[in-house]
Amino acid sequence: METRSFNILVLALLTVPFVLAMTGVQAQLSTDFYKNTCPNVESIVSQVVANKFQQTFVTAPATLRLLFHDCFVRGCDASVMLASPDSKAEKDHPDNLSLAGDGFDTVIKAKAALDQDARCKNQVSCADILALATRDVVVLTGGPNYTVELGRRDVRISTISSVQRHLPKPEFNLDQLNSMFAANGLTQRDMIALSGAHTLGFSHCSKFSKRIYNFSPGTKTTIDPALNRKYALQLRQMCPLKVDPRIAIDMDPTTPRIFDNAYFKNLQQGKGLLSSDQVLFTDQRSKATVDEFASNSTAFNQAFITAITKLGRVGVLTGRKGEIRIDCTRPN
């Protein structure tokens, strides 16, 4: 009996550090992190984002995509913002070359605006600016408002090699998607909700050309049967063979400038642009969630808030780790 009690005590003591480690990040991030150092951080960033959004709509999908590409590689640490003189930073990886410059520009402009406030100068991390700007573009396009946890610090390194195997591929199936998201503490429901962000933005013809031209080489089936045929023929007109594969096509063919649940309604009609989009509906394990979000925008918005909040906690640096970059494009 004494031996059993001792073993239980040891197990409990070993478990405590693990639990603290798992909850520590969330505890160190807070919605009022800058209340004493930069109390106007949210209003300053919001104004910059609004001005940038008025100049070009691309600001919205570009900023949203930039956050995802940052968080999924090393964590939400603004490593994707760092530039390299020899083109060996994250942003130089082929998977990141299509990131629109407006996302980077939004963060840089917000940083400059914050530095004009004496209280905020060199107080707010680039990682936190990106998180705030992402929330703002979601709201500006009609999406849900939500509080942003703050307190992230910026990493000092960024390597092109770190991108490999960390970002979803357009041909991923459900198992591959779930595995990659689970590695970042996100559930299948989180993954589907975050995929709903494809209601904004665009993709290039090269990312889905096989679905509309040579789905099954050597047979008469040249169009992916999961793809709505009429939609596929429209895509062929927009993406003809032997034309620049970098042509951009809206991910959402119905309301590409509004953050809504149309993405899920499109999946029900076979209008998911990428295989990794359409599989969410064709796979019975995820279909019910797609149907739920398609019929209930409130459920989607709530799930998105939960998912993007969890995404914002992935691999963050807090406390004395990392730094507050003076220039978002280079370490101090």
From TrEMBL:
Signal peptide range: 1-21
GO terms, molecular function: heme binding; lactoperoxidase activity; metal ion binding
Domain of life of the organism encoding this protein: Eukaryota
Cofactor: record remark: Binds 1 heme b (iron(II)-protoporphyrin IX) group per subunit. Binds 2 calcium ions per subunit.
Active site location: H69
Record GO biological process: hydrogen peroxide catabolic process; response to oxidative stress
Record's subcellular location: Secreted
Cofactor annotation: heme b; Ca(2+)
UniProt binding sites for heme b: H198
GO CC, one annotated term: extracellular region
Statement: the UniProt record of this protein carries the keyword Heme: yes
EC number: 1.11.1.7
UniProt entry tagged with the keyword Metal-binding: yes
Keyword entries, A-Z: Calcium, Disulfide bond, Heme, Hydrogen peroxide, Iron, Metal-binding, Oxidoreductase, Peroxidase, Secreted, Signal
Binding, Ca(2+) 2: T199, D252, T255, D260
Site (Transition state stabilizer): R65
Residues the record lists as binding Ca(2+) 1: D70, V73, G75, D77, S79, E90
SS bonds (residue pairs): C38-C120, C71-C76, C126-C328, C205-C239
Major enzyme class: oxidoreductase
Start and end residues of each Plant heme peroxidase family profile domain: 28-332
Database matches in InterPro entries: Haem_peroxidase, Haem_peroxidase_sf, Peroxidase_pln, Peroxidases_AS, Peroxidases_heam-ligand_BS, Secretory_peroxidase
Binding locations of substrate: P168
Similarity-based family: Belongs to the peroxidase family. Ascorbate peroxidase subfamily.
Task performed by this protein: Removal of H(2)O(2), oxidation of toxic reductants, biosynthesis and degradation of lignin, suberization, auxin catabolism, response to environmental stresses such as wounding, pathogen attack and oxidative stress. These functions might be dependent on each isozyme/isoform in each plant tissue.
Name assigned to this protein: Peroxidase
Species: Morus notabilis
Lineage of the species this protein comes from: Eukaryota, Viridiplantae, Streptophyta, Embryophyta, Tracheophyta
